[in-house]
Structure formats: structure tokens, C-alpha cells
Amino acid sequence: MSDDCPSRLLTKLPSELRIKIYEYVLAFDNPIKPRQFVAGSSNTNILRTNKQVYHEAQAVLYEMNTISVSRNDFCSKTDRVLQTPIKSQHVRHLRFTSFGESIACNFLLDRCSVCEDHARGLLEALSIMPLLKNVNIDYSTQIANFLRFKDRAAGCPTGPTITCVGVGLYNVRGGRFDQADFTFSHRPLASIWPTLSVLSNSMPSEREEEDALSRLRTVDPDVPDKLWLLFWARQYGRSAEWSGERVAEAWVDELELASMSIEQRSTALHELTVALQVFLKAQTASQCRRYLRSLREFAFV
């Protein structure tokens, strides 16, 4: 191999400079699924330069990026050909795109420990990842699965502790997970609710309101309009009429939460989350926009 070969030129650079190059080349804006980047990506082709570069760059790849996975990738009854290759010893950041059972276990009465409601096999697999820093599981499309998991965890004295720390957001603690940031989230609800809560307290103009809703619709096309109706109804004393008794009874504001213990706060936020999830499923965005127009007419009469 000649001295001017690209791989030789790269390895001749100081290690600090090589790391900077890897960081520039291997940083992705969105979570990645390793299988999708094995071949053909100009970014990850650097991993194929030689063994030295592979080992150096691989560490940077996992340090800087979130790996996108599902329970299917951990299921013991799923063929490995259908799974994302996960290097447990390197993974730092994981995002589960759903909390549904694997394709295989979805059709079986005898599911594996990863896909059972208690998900012990999944928790064990995550707990032995030595460098794991954070895990987020989006349960928004499998709400019933998450609620069963939460109930099973609450009934198991040796299981993890699950605390609701925000609307649609739950922390998992216990054992290895005391060192990692492990959360379950209803991603649209957890992302959109805090922004709308702040917006509702700022008395926005109609233009500011629509600009904010337009930005939030990039997160989810329907949830912003549904939730914004609730804030309007609350502001004008029509919460029970427009959002239903369940949401009206569960609604809790920041001042009330501030006066609660951690356990009381978790219970209150969980009850509000469940009520909102039921509301989101029952209503369409077009219905909520229509209700909001009616509410505006009432407010400005």
C-alpha cells in the first residue's frame, strides 16, 4: 500500500484530529438503524477504511448517535435476519419507536420474556449494556401495552419503579437504571403539551397562536389542535362541556403540582395523562378545530 493511499493518510494524522473527523462525518440528525447504513452511505463508508479506523470510528458513531430499535430486535423468537444488529457493549443512546410485541410473538400465545407484559427480558437486556446513558420508549401507538407493563411493575416488589414526571412522560428507576436516563413517553403528548401550556399563559394573538400550532403539527398533524381546544375550554370555564368530565376532573395546573409530594404528583400527572390519551383517541382534529371556532365565537360575543 503506497504512502499516499487515503487510509494511510488518515491514520498518519494525530488521533485527536482523526476523532474530530469521525465526529464530523458520523453525526446524524435523527436516530439511526444500523442495518440501513451498512452499505451505500457516504458517511459510514469511513468505517470500512481499515481495522484501526473501524474501531476508532465505531466508538464515535455510538457515542454521538441514538440507535432506533423495537422489541422485535430483542425478541428471542424472531429470526436474527429480521433484527437490527445491536452492539450491546457500545450502545449509549436507544430510542424504541414503539412498545408493541415482536412480529413473531404477536401471533403466539406463549410469548418470550421480552414481549410479555412484564417485559423482564427486555429490561435485563438493557440493564447489561455497560455504556448505556439513555433509553426512550415511545408507547403512543401501544398505550394498552404500556399500561399493562406499568401495572405489572407496580405489583412486583423487585421490579422497577415507574414515576410519571410530566404529561405523557414516565421515568424508570431501580437497579442499573439508576445510572441511565430511562423514560417511557407518549411522544406527541409529551412534546406538545408543555409548549401549549406556556402558550396558553402568554395570551397569544391569533397569528402567534396559528404560527405555534403550525410548528407543532410537524411533530404530529392532529394532536396540537386537539390539545389547544382543551386549553381554550379551560380558560373560558367550558372544560367539562368541551373536553368531557374525565379531563376536567383530572386537570391539574403547575401551582397545584408544586404543593404535592413526589408520589402525589406522579399520581395526578398519570391520571391526567390517561384522561388526555382517551380524549385524543376519541376526537378527530377536524372536530376539535370546529369546536374551537365555536368556542372563539362564544368568547368574543
From TrEMBL:
InterPro entries: AN11006-like
Matching PANTHER family: F-BOX DOMAIN-CONTAINING PROTEIN
Protein name, per record: F-box domain-containing protein
Species in which this protein is naturally found: Friedmanniomyces simplex
